[in-house]
## 1
Amino acid sequence: MKLLFLILIAPLISYSQTNDSIFLRKIYNTALSKGEAYEDLRELCKTIGARISGSAEAAMAVQWGEQKMKSYGFDTVYLQEVKVPHWERGTKEAGWIRTSEGKMLKVNLLALGGSIGTNGLLEGEIVAFNHMDELKKASKSQVQGKIVFLNQAMNEQQIETFRAYGGCYTIRGNGAVEASKLGAKAVIIRSLGLAIDEHPHTGSMHYADSIPKIPAAALSTQDAEILAQILKKQKANFVFEMDCRDYPDVVSYNVIAEIKGSKFPNQIITMGGHLDSWDTGEGAHDDGAGIMHCLEALRILKVLNYKPINTLRCVFFMNEENGNRGGETYATWSKSRGEIQLTALESDRGGFSPRGFEVDGSEKYVTFLQSLEKHFEPYDLSIFRPGYGGVDISPLKRSFEGIPLFGFAVDSQRYFDFHHAPSDVFENVNKRELELGCAAIGAFIYLLDRNYSIFLP
Ligand SMILES: [Zn+2]
């Protein structure tokens, strides 16, 4: 019986593995020799640039994405309506340190996304904290009427930079609420970045209904260091002006392309990133690179004439940065249409050298993911482990119980030099690294489609 199995089945297994490896090689060859992702990214970054939800640039990016997808001849290309928040930075944004000796030093700052403005020049004595926990333990008398400076640095000893970012996220997300609880008139934070440089990093923050809203801004790490030095010797005031504000919600869109499943068109494998970006830099790594990874993966599969078993769908999600309305809308919409979402993959960690894939799912899917590692040995991918999928695809978990979500893992060491900063521009994305990412995702999606039965309920 065993012998019979080996004689009959073994050749089939090795035949299909050889076929897979030949096809993966074709995907990589196409990405590296006939790639279009890099030029597509250049177009998006240089003709449109930063594209925060609700902006004219975001609307242009939707049109650009739809036209680009149509030009590649996918089976279906369409827009999906999403109501998005609309916050604008405004035109005034400047800040200074005024030392007790009366010296003025100009700093590089960015309002945090969602912050209120300062309503003219705002000045106050600075009270500094090196950690969020210190602020939480402070008394009202220490903070009342002052400007809180949260100088909590990302942990540079942490190898995975996303963990270092996660450890500091609270100063940006919750700094205003915690400072305002103690009567502060504003909060300024050290930018969330590992490098000491002149670029401030914005990002989302929030208010609590019961607590007065105060303006919130991020200083460049360099300015944060300078300010900390000054405060060691003397008191100082912070002076700044910002006229950022919220506007009513705006209609925007997710942009979607599909190659229909040849056997199971109602079974969907979703891949995507986010089309919106912060309103500084060009949204090149975050997340221009991620949407190009997925678009190019789909394009390559089409060019190679691959006929997927299930529908392969590439989604440019809108509004990941300050609301995730695109992700929410997509999950609800897909469920309401009676679709079967088999699985989803997100690329939102920059256009750097690929390292592998993570899965947010049950043990069965971790084992499955690890079984794919052998296919990627020739391509230097070694991360195949449990982890995180992505913000845009995360609402699928609510609509589709037990769905495994895959996250594309890249070399994270330089990501936070550019994340949400003016330096997130096209020039800081490397062509070959971007192309290797497109190939890795194309290969991975192909393997997910071929092995789709593991995702069936
Ligand atoms: Zn992102």
Note: The pocket of zinc ion is lined by residues 274, 286-287, 320, 348 (CB under 6 Å).
## 2
Amino acid sequence: MSEAIASSSSRSELEERFSEVRDCSMRIAARLSPEDALVQSMPDASPTKWHLAHTTWFFETVILSKLPRYKAFDPAFNYLFNSYYNAVGPRHPRPQRGLITRPSLEQVFAYREYVDAAMLEAIGEADRIDDIVLGLNHEQQHQELMLTDIKHAFFQNPTLPVFGWDERHACRVDQSDWSRQQGGLVEVGATSNRTEFAFDNERPRHQVLLQPYKIATNTVTNGEFAAFIDDGGYRRPEFWLSDGWSAVQSEGWSSPLYWLGGDRGEWTVFTLGGEHPLNLAAPVQHVSFFEAAAFAAWAGKRLPTEFEWEAASRDFAFGSVWEWTRSSYDPYPGFKTFEGMAAEYNGKFMVGQMVLRGGSIATPRGHARSSYRNFFPPNARWQFSGIRLADDWE
Ligand SMILES: [Fe+2]
């Protein structure tokens, strides 16, 4: 995928995009055994098999089930593979997705083929284009989750299996500098111009008032984060938010997730390509919001708000790592949910989570954009999440 998937795509472009996106999920799955594809390492993560079926269920439920001629592949899948849509009905509990040994992985592949054929027919009739585009963007979101979830699962295995995907290709950052931003009244959010897809949470575009500020031109590196650790960062409560300090104690955090070898005095890091020596010049990743905020406090700086980030984003490169912001995930003024079942897509999660901006090496190319709002709870560490610093401009 080199470009964003837009509702203005022609029918043949959409057919092509549909096949590309669906194939990409299958290419991820092709690296896994059926046992790998079933494992669920924690309630927040889902088995690959579930992701493959759920993204298919989404197309089936939002689009195909509305077509009079369509016959469901298996009516039981509506219970098994609904994620969180209350309007669609009851569902299997999220923490128990790894217990769904039947249908088999092969049957899930057959489900995908069945739905793909019906979807290509629906695209051919140019029906429900906006929903098809939403379904493709939804599947791309799950592709990143497939990678983060299998990484977490493999990390639970003492043999540290190699998924076979090199995380290092996009991971080097240059020396960081400060970009000075005047602030003032700026516009943020996606335009209502429907030629570019955006999720409902990116709209409406609106004005915000920013004070003058500085923002780093690069994200924080492993080397910089290692200096925080060496300076006792995880043992000094003065840098931590109260809930963050509680998390350090209860979870026993002493480094980012996937760092190994601290007791040997030589850091290595577990990746989807196996265990490697820690590249000090690469962006730190797999830190929680709490760790990002503590690092910023230690550095005498702060995290940018999501609006500072977006207003300055034309002045720096992004996309190697999701960047925690100091903004809680809230609706924009005038926010309206998508219609129909997709009304539950984003709006109901707007409490207790922080916004991340940018995109990561696991984000499908062309999927993210400067107005894109990712969100996770402040203690989440299994996503490719990192840090960009900001400061007041005095
Ligand atoms: Fe989903």
Note: Residues 290 and 316 are 24 Å apart (CA to CA).
